Every structure is written in C-alpha cells, then in structure tokens.
Amino acid sequence: MKKKKKNIILLIGIVEVLLVLAVAWLYAAPLIFKSQPENNIGQSKIEEQSKSTISPKAARNNAKQIAALTEKVVPSEGVVLPVSWGNLGAQLVKDGVIDKDKFETLYQQRGSFTQEYKDLLLGNNKGQLKITRSNSGYLLNLFWALGLANKNPILDEMTKSVNGRTQDLAATGGWTIAKGNPMKYYNHYKLLNLTTKQQALVDKVSNGIYRPCCGNSAHFPGCNHGMAMLGFLELMASQGASEQAMWNAALTVNSYWFPNTYLTIATYMNNNGIDWKKINPQGILGHDYSSAQGYARIASQTIHPQSGGNSGSGCGVGAGVAAPPIQASNPQSGGNNGSGCGVSAGITPPTQALNPQPIQKQQGGCGI
C-alpha cells in the first residue's frame, strides 16, 4: 500500500514539472521567434551580416567602379561603327523582308519610333552608323534582316548542317515582321557583293565570334544575334573594313546587345589586373568568354553587375517570339569547349584574352 501511494506521489510530481515547463515555453516562444517570421528564418542574420560587411562608403565606391567600367564597355555617348547603312533599309522594305507597317507599329507602340529610326528604315544614310545604348536593339533588327536576306555561302552551309530544316531556326521563325513567310527571303537577295577575299574574311571572323545566348559562332547564325552579326560582318567586309576593325566593331556591338554579360566579363578581367581597353577583342569574342558555356565559367567566379539601360539581348523581334531552339546536326567541339548545355570545370586564364588560341567550331544550343 505504501509503495502504491509513493508511485502516485511521484507521478503527480512529474506532471507538475511538465506543467511548469509548458508554461515557461508558452511565455518564451514569442520572444524566441519574434524576429524570425515564417518563411523568413535566417534572413535577418543575412541582412545583419550584409550591413556589417559592407559600409555605405564601400557601397558608394563599388557603385562608382561599376559606373566607370560600364562606361568603358558600353559608352554612354555611343560608338561609331566602320560602316555606312545607305539605303539598305529601303531595299529591305521594298523586297518585303521588312514589312514597313509592322515594323513602325512595333516601335510606335513603345513610343520610340524616332526620326533616326525612320531614316534608317526608309532613307539614304550616308554617314557612318553609331550604336548607342538606346538604338542597339533597333540596329540588331536591321542587321538581322540583312543577314537573313543576303545571299551568302555561310547560309548554304547552315542549311545543309540542319538537313534543310532552316524554317525551324530561331533566326527565321522569329522574324515575324516580314511580308508573309520569312523563308521567302532567306538567303535570297544579292544585297551585298563580296569579293572572294572579302568572303574569306567574313568566314574567318564569323567562325571566331560567339554569343552568350548559346554555344554557336556567327558562322552558324541560328538565332537573331547570330544572323544580325553575320549581316554586320558582311556589311563591314563589303565596305573594305580590315580584319582588326571587324573584330573591334564586333565586340562593340556584342557588348551593346549583351551589356550585363560583357560588364561581368570586364569585371572578371579587371579583377585579374587586365584593363578592358587593353584586351584583345578576338580573344573575348571567342568560345572561352562569349559562348554560353564560356560565359557561365566566367560568371561563376564573378559578381554580376547590372548595367541597366536598353539592349537587344532578347531573342525575338520585340513582340515577336523566336522559334524554340533545337540541336544542330553533327555538332563539333574542340579545345576546352563545353559539350551541349553543360559547363565544364575549370576556366581559361585571363591571358587568353590577350593572346587567343585557335578554337574549333562548336555547334550546339541556340540553333535548330
């Protein structure tokens, strides 16, 4: 009997202890979780660390450095290109490659169909073109139309490489501002007459210019940027530009079309002690820096600054949507190129941008 009574007393004691702990928990819980709302646990700690590691002065200095670097990569005053546009816009409209009404409406809806745009589309422009942060997307579309329509062996080669399925290319299916089916104009007109030497120059340079939207060079112009770059290279070559002038200008337009990409690359170079003004454009435009795979390796080691402003980094004609990309047949890759959409380990040292090495052609990603 005594043993049973003793057990009852022990049980009551345990219950009392549990009640005390429960009350204490109910009192303390609001204090413990007061600064950590649901789905935000840890955020206050991150913000606290951020505030403690970056002073206002350091933040201002960082902003100034980014602004200065942005000015080097995409100058606010723009850059004069070594080409004259002439009346190519009017020819493209006359041939139906550009539907004037569709094109004007596209920009009027944005409130940005300026007199400059009208002149480039319909007039005879004798001076050299100037690319700026505001008109880079417009020039992209004009060069795209030119590259699409101008007859060139590079387009014949691409047609063969995709087994004739050029209608599925983003560069053709995405061109929504032609009169009718854009394939009517693909590789059709002799808008620019290139000599054998000039064509060889376009072949060489286009093979070495990559774009960060995919893993292809401009020699496989399967998307808008590739087709626009081809048109731009053809235009430069037809007007007697030197090879070095073509590399320089190609990096300029790529930078305006992908400002955040090249600002990131410039930041990486700067962190490695190389000034953007001293880099070799051919090296930066190569696969190790400007392809999607190469840029991913650079970006993985660099904080991504944002330059803001307008660019032509989208893959459609404004409201138009580009055709979905599919793999080009018989892809080739070489050197340190990543295969497919993967990113291989390792990174090319920054000295590659000063002394580029030959890189084999790589097909994959943003083609058909």
Note down, in words, how this protein is organized:
This protein is mostly helical and 368 residues long. The chain has one domain. The chain is 50% helix and 4% strand. It has helices at 2-33, 43-53, 56-73, 88-95, 100-108, 115-122, 136-149, 153-161, 170-173, 196-207, 224-238, 243-257, 259-271, 281-285, 287-290, 292-299; strands spanning 79-86, 125-131.
**Beta-sheet strand percentage?**
under 5%
The major β-sheet equals:
2 strands, antiparallel
Oligomer: single chain
For the CA atoms, what is the radius of gyration? 29 Å
In N-to-C order, the SSE pattern is: HHHEHHHEHHHHHHHHHH
Give the overall shape: globular
* Number of DSSP E strands: 2
Structural class based on helices, strands and sheet pairing:
mainly alpha
Instruction: List low-pLDDT spans.
Output: 2-6, 8-52, 319-368
